[in-house]
Amino acid sequence: xxxxxxxxxxxxxxxxxxxxxxxxxxxxxxxxxxxxxxxxxxxxxxxxxxxxxxxxxxxxxxxxxxxxxxxxxxxxxxxxxxxxxxxxxxxxxxxxxxxxxxxxxxxxxxxxxxxxxxxxxxxxxxxxxxxxxxxxxxxxxxxxxxxxxxxxxxxxxxxxxxxxxxxxxxxxxxxxxxxxxxxxxxxxxxxxxxxxxxxxxxxxx
Amino acid sequence: xxxxxxxxxxxxxxxxxxxxxxxxxxxxxxxxxxxxxxxxxxxxxxxxxxxxxxxxxxxxxxxxxxxxxxxxxxxxxxxxxxxxxxxxxxxxxxxxxxxxxxxxxxxxxxxxxxxxxxxxxxxxxxxxxxxxxxxxxxxxxxxxxxxxxxxxxxxxxxxxxxxxxxxxxxxxxxxxxxxxxxxxxxxxxxxxxxxxxxxxxxxxx
Amino acid sequence: xxxxxxxxxxxxxxxxxxxxxxxxxxxxxxxxxxxxxxxxxxxxxxxxxxxxxxxxxxxxxxxxxxxxxxxxxxxxxxxxxxxxxxxxxxxxxxxxxxxxxxxxxxxxxxxxxxxxxxxxxxxxxxxxxxxxxxxxxxxxxxxxxxxxxxxxxxxxxxxxxxxxxxxxxxxxxxxxxxxxxxxxxxxxxxxxxxxxxxxxxxxxx
Amino acid sequence: xxxxxxxxxxxxxxxxxxxxxxxxxxxxxxxxxxxxxxxxxxxxxxxxxxxxxxxxxxxxxxxxxxxxxxxxxxxxxxxxxxxxxxxxxxxxxxxxxxxxxxxxxxxxxxxxxxxxxxxxxxxxxxxxxxxxxxxxxxxxxxxxxxxxxxxxxxxxxxxxxxxxxxxxxxxxxxxxxxxxxxxxxxxxxxxxxxxxxxxxxxxxx
Lengths: 205, 205, 205, 205
Description:
Four copies of one chain form a homotetramer. By secondary structure, chain A is α/β, with parallel strands linked by helices.
């Protein structure tokens, strides 16, 4: 069975602008595609996503479109830039909306996030990647995603202002690209495992 | 000289809806007012605040209005609810926009956040207040605000779902209200100190 | 094949003193034992564990004994109290020593943490559980552990000082005990999955 | 009146070994000394510091010696390396012991941490400084210290393994050294302010 990955790019910039985070997500996506995993990219700020802990924030809210994409995905990757040493406000909004969508269940009555695997991609000029990754992986685990080992990659430069991923040719940075390899390997493995093995619902559910 | 406080309520809900965070901020504001400190309340989601690390995100962006309020304030309080154990996405957006406004300087050439004092108010059903406070106080300190001791208050219930501040009559919770008293005391003191004593610019060294 | 779980209790108190965190870990362990998963409990401060990013900190260092226990475990649970809204210093020392033990590999050349599953148990008077969980789950994932969905439980009271888990009869707290049930269910499931399915080494790509 | 600064180096290594964090702390100390602020350096792991939320952990505990140093200090600096993207376990132990020492009060009945100013110094191969700073500044603010604006400096390299501060000649890194200048300037200013202006006790104290 073919696997499918959805990449949620939580950049503050719309897709009219170049995103460093997208450039690193593309490195991940290329390697998924070589393994016959199809990839879809979503730039969150291209959509009207309202505020609230809800699956539907009103008639103009486009979050329901994103829910459909998440339902179709075996693998979800959240990508975020770093600002003030933390994940972006857009990535927090995405987690809030996912939290508000937990009551949408699969056939077994589990939150629909179950039996799917998750990873994180972070880029920044400097400092803050592990903080962003911890926070996002916790959120995804809390929602019901399976988190394979080392399911993330990041790039950042030295302390203080400096070039971003694309300008710094981060795609040649050995550590970052080795993490890309590991995360693709482990996410693919667990996605194929879940294709065959579903977590049974807990007793009372 | 009269002091002035601005409260930025980073609830996910607009002011048409009741905010538990506002209810606790109001406890703080009342005590400022008794000390002749004037208070202004801003519900961030009532404004069109765009994304980006910039002081102006385009013609529809209402952040510049909020900058004017921040310039007038001797004291700024950021209030946030807790979701997934962390501050709200709205509060992160506010910090991002403040970060993008750092090049606006006072007469001495310092970021205009200098010589002002800052505090934090958090409410949630449960768990996450200190995480939110650490993150926001760091952001405010990084921007240039002075952080007096114990410059925060919070209310939250036991682990898991439960009532919010208003329903739980949090305004009678001894710990929370003692923190209100301390934060008002210390913020007022440091605001009056800064009225007389400005941090000299580092360039003068 | 029988599964085995190791519980690392990172309380600041030695086993001569009652540990609230242990009381909640015992709830988890009882449910593992009902599923024929054997359990071993380690109170870290009963051991001489030195400082450093190393698997061996000198002749008096007892960390090597704990490594042997971790090697035998299919499931590892880290338990911690909350101080200042965060996991204990002892739990951070454990993560540092695990980080220093990464070069110990299994037959496949992976860090020996691979193909094992991990969870977290937290108790505190108040606030800080999700912060502790995020940080510890990230550390365990970084080391190579598999993190099943909702692989944690916690108990804490309202904002401010108050009773601890045992005194408050936290074992009757519905939310906490429902999380116990979910974490045991998911950890058991993934441990049995890994008994049959090992993550292939990345070198084989 | 002469000011005095105490530097608590929370390295995992004793003073027999070279500490990168110390090297950056020394840059800060030199600038304090040029301003006639005396400096004392404490390598925490040189002392027997027990575990617990207490000011005295038994007959072998050397924390009481460190309390005396903290009482004498107008300025306290906590220095920490980064491991797993966070402050060291030693720095968390120091905060726990300070938390346990809060009931030691000054003549006014305030925790003895009041009317003193605090800053943070962080070094690491990579990623984690702002996380460490947020956490430590929050802890210090919670205890009663005054936190001046931008009261920290840090150095770190690019994502992944790499050289540390000394080897990388971090003392020539413009961003890091500019932060040294700002932190020294602001800490000195607030220490001299507090020499003249003490925070009055809150009403009920």
